Amino acid sequence: MYNLHALGWRSFQQLCLTITREILGQTVESFLDSKDGGRDGAFAGQWKPTGQDNLEGQFVIQCKFTSKSNAILNVSDISDEVEKARKLVERGCCDSYILMTNAGLSGPGEEKIKALFKNAGVKHVVIFGSTWICQQILENKRLRMLVPRVYGLGDLSQILDERAYLQARTILESMREDLAKVVVTDSYRKAVEAIDKYSFVLLIGEPAAGKTTIASLLAMAAIDQWNASTLKLSDPEKVAEHWNPDEPSQFFWLDDAFGVTQYEELLVHNWNRILPQIRPMLQNGAKVVMTSRDYIYNRARKDLKESAFPLLKESQVVIDVHDLSADEKHQILYNHLKLGKQPRLFLTKIKPFLEGVSSHKRFIPETARRLSEPPFTKDLIIDEYYISQFVEKREQLLHDVLNGLDVDSKAALALIYMRKGRIESPIELKDSETQALMRLGSNLGRCVTALEAMKGSIVLLSRLNDEAVWQYKHPTIGDAYAAILIESSEHLEIFINGSTPDRLIEQVTCGDVGVEKAIVIPKPLYPLMLKTLSTFSKSESYKSEWLSKFVARRGLLGFLARRCSKEFLSLYLQHNPGLLEQVSKPGLYLDIVPEVWLAKRLHEFGLFPEEARRMFVDTVSKYALEGEDVEALIDDGIRSMFTDDEFKNLVRRVRDELLPQLDGLRCQLEAVYSSGTSPEEHMQRFLENLDSLKKRFHKIESATTLIDQEIAYIKEWIDENKEPERSPRKLGKVETSRGPHSARSIFDDIDAEVGIINK
User: What is the residue-wise DSSP string for 405-422?
Assistant: First the structure.
């Protein structure tokens, strides 16, 4: 039922002690040192096992682990333990002996083992074999959450109903192997606490820190414990689309919320529109987990409206790999190697160096994964120096591995990269992609063969939004491939020709404008970029005609504003003179419309003519005076486009004309409210305008008093119209695997022959 033999001796021991605490209801003292005197755990008091007499006194727990899946516990396997038990009896430390094993038990064998311990003076002997342990896992949801590795070691169809199983299978399709290697860390515990307290958690950490793994564990726990409808989504728009107010237990997993390998501004501004809608979702019982690389989030937070969604700050869990304990690092490395694809000979050779690997200052979970995969170690010399370099220079190693791939494998990775890290299966190429493959010396058939060969180590075939997709095993592989692309202008030309415009504008910059992890297009390729952008009128990411055109226009303007040098912008304006009129008349929501971003950029570069500037100033001033959008009062970039006299005049007119009308604007909004939206969402924009007005007029007491009064009225109205909150569902407190350090190395049995039974 569960592949307990894949756990390893240390994890099996921890599982047994967790079962004792959770199932048997005992407070157990752990003896994890090799000098335990025949005890892995102990407790004192009374206990009544099911179907047996009441027991009391001193209890000893001992674990026996085997790496063989169908092993049977024999008398010879416990001969050493009998003598240890005799000594414990003599010391008054053992009235009852509890033996837990992942091996099977025969009736006669069990009776013989019990007789040996009783002859040694033990009053009562209880033996729990693999069948009993698996049954406890099967029947106890909380136990599965505390030991989440079991999600990757068993048949989920046996513990989940059909609906939940289908969801779990989709989520786990590409992650089952990773979940089988999971170590419960302090970060996981904090994430559970955040979900319980806030119904929301944002997981932030460096690449390969374990964010996605923790998110998957939370998703599995939600499916298992609450039968939650669990959705893994990549687009803000789809959150509101899939939320069902009549289904309170929904769980939303938003991986790489602000960009996969680099910051994607369009995503962030879409989140600004969606985040106010998340609050009523949480109040209704939904749970949300977001993940983001640390450097991407640090860039995104400048554009995110954290004031509109305070939980972004309150429920962050920072995944710092440097905070992993020594035992956690050892266990992570052990699990990956034990369940990896390395031959036994390799494990035997590298075994003496493993303690040093997991103790290295630059060790991260991704290091363990690479060490467990033969493609990453085929040229590794098993020597202390070279192994240390493997850990120390992890970025260069990955770069070298990818550079050493054959032509077809590189071309296959190029296909994935051109599709922004994911390409649907079966693969259907555009003409430009076919040409790109030809120039790379490959074709579709050979690329598919290469993908199959790399599956599991460098790439994955998984499911995303009900579609089969090829993607990198880990996003760091995409980072390394980007670095390879940058090395050759020939590759860049292939990349541009083979990429769709909507993917291209999210991955490149025209000139070096300081965007981290972006591919910099040099000046000689500007004409090719102009030609590519000229075809960009619809986004291929959306089926809706209107939305496709809207996203394309927004994405292009954002690209020009954020990712282009002055020289490229000047060249673009020469070919597209009508752009100036477009950006001089921006629409509402000035803080998120791309016309404003581009207008500010053009003005900064001296590329915005006076006539266009005056039209822009008139437009944003009209919005402010009518109370529709007062962003012009507080945005430094917009302010720079005003002359001093123009701005002073605007501030004066807003003070004299708009402030006295605030109560009327509020009443109008209250009058048109319908229950189709939440009251918070309905009033969100007006509240944002009031906050902006308060910032501008904070030195005028009468103005701030008036604004504070309106804010209080709105909050009172929101409370009156708010739906009652549902009782929150909680996962509960989680213990971590941190504990006494064992004198016995966790790596003792890393190369053990199948069938050996360990302590």
Answer: S-HHHHHHHHHHHHTTTE
